[in-house]
Amino acid sequence: MCAAIAEASSPPAALPVPDLAALAHIPGRDGPPLIGDTFKFLAAPLGSVQAMAERYGLVHRTRVFGLRSISLLGPDAIGLVLFDQARIFSSGEGWEPFLGRLFPRGLMLLDFDEHRLHRRALSVAFKAGPLKSYLAALDAGIAARLALWRQGAPDFRFYPAIKQLTLDLAATSFLGEALGPEVEAIKRAFVDMVAASTAIIRRPLPGTAMRRGVEGRRFIVDYFSRQAPLRRERGGEDIFSQLCRATHDDGSLMTVQEIADHMSFLMMAAHDTLTSSLSAFVYFLAAHPDWQEKLREEAFGLGLGAGERLPFERLDELRLTEMAFKEAMRLIPPVISLPRRAVRDFEFAGYRIPAGARVSTSIVFTHHMPEIWPEPERFDPLRFTEENARGRHKFAYAPFGGGAHMCLGLHFAYLQAKCFAYNLLTTTGVAIAPGYRPDWQLTPIPRPRDGLRVTLRPLS
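Above: the chain's sequence. Below: its structure in token form.
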């Protein structure tokens, strides 16, 4: 196990790993040998970061998953690290210890000019035209699934249900068809890949989470590699077919391997982060029935007839819905922290940080800073009115990251969230037991440990 953990610390050939002496001027701690504060972080990610910040400040040294890292906290740090106009930070080398074996060559693991070229090729699938074409199928699929859920037991476990639904929606919008007999294997592969991203044992030893993740990747890549040539011949409006036809700046098609790498990463990101965000959104609506009713009034205010599908052109009218979804992601962001690696020396807040240092910025910490968000634990969608947002630090809110690596599917996520909210609110009431608060596991992607117990009831 020790060797497996230590392997995560192996440096890329091009960058040195600063030793402790080079970082000793930065306050902080290494924690216990080898594993550092890994278990403390996994048990309470937000609380552990807040405790370190209170003791050592907004810039401090820590060690998690066997990796010594510099935490840069607060909105100024988010602006520096994520928007990175000086090209100081490598996203690929920041994520590599966690995702390198599982999602190599995914968009988040590419940097600078190479990242820009691939992102430009992939963006064709997320423009307004394609998004509009996805909505009708998504709307119908969500409506049908909600009808089945309303017939279920009162003690409904929302998280596993929405996880299955988002996978099915991904099949519709990404693949354009049902996944067929391979659906359970694909679902299991994605679950295993995400779980392996923060596995303590970083080598694919038999019986480990990393072995299951690596095997899941092999299955997913094989599936997309077999399908890509068929899609180029057949065509289609789904995301997969569009990527199979996407070209680089020189007019060349992406290779089959590139398509497989990007599809496996994009489907993981779209499936798991949306599952997490919708679970948080539904919990806060159930916990705040006054807000649930306000959003319901907004949805009915569109004036659509029973069974009439939600038009793409009217999504922007769901303003309160969007604010409530944003507030849910403030409280429980879909990715709580973002790692990077410095490619050259830099200074921040009076500290010199050497090239090769691993750095991270905590989104969830910034989203809970009381000096930015008064009463940070309170659910208040009105934080996102234009008036209340005016004057707030422009990097105080970053659930989708920022800069060159801003989530490519941001608008796709809002489309699905509004579509789901509209169908839910116009047909279904959602409630929780008095005093119920789910225990959220925040890493690698937030989820309620008990599955999120809610009661669904048809609206009269």
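Confidence is low (pLDDT under 50) at residues 1-12.
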